[in-house]
Amino acid sequence: HVPQGPVCTNLGLKPGQRLTVKGKVAPNAKSFVMNLGKDATLLGLHFNPRFDAHGDVNTIVCNSKKVEEWGAEHREAVFPFQKGGTAEITFAVNQSDVTVHLPGHQFTFPNRLNLSVFDYFDTQGDFTLQSISWE
């Protein structure tokens, strides 16, 4: 069972706004997850850095989920996370995608579900949320 971190609802993130998440990666981390979407069943962005999980090593896997239906996995080769380290990640919401800002790197993930607002955010796995802010 994956430990569930805090869950935020009614965020009201719209295009032009951004969500910044700061926290600590567990010393023996295998993977962690951040979900951003309309609610727990409609995830516009499933952000999953994997240190060593599901056959992936030091890879960020992103996806979208519509009820029980997952989309195609998107993999990023850049991996700026360290076990036992701190992490700061910013999700910038745009009209057609979400830009993920990582230390020294950024990439975009399409808004496949055409969500006009992102109300839901959660974290799971080997990550301890320290602060969350949005603007």
From TrEMBL:
The keyword Acetylation does not apply. The gene is Leg4. Pfam families: Gal-bind_lectin. The keyword Disulfide bond does not apply. Keywords: Lectin. One of its GO terms (molecular function) is lactose binding. GO terms for cellular component: extracellular space. This is Galectin. Residues 5-135 form the Galectin domain. The lineage of its organism: Eukaryota, Metazoa, Chordata, Craniata, Vertebrata. Coiled coil: none annotated.
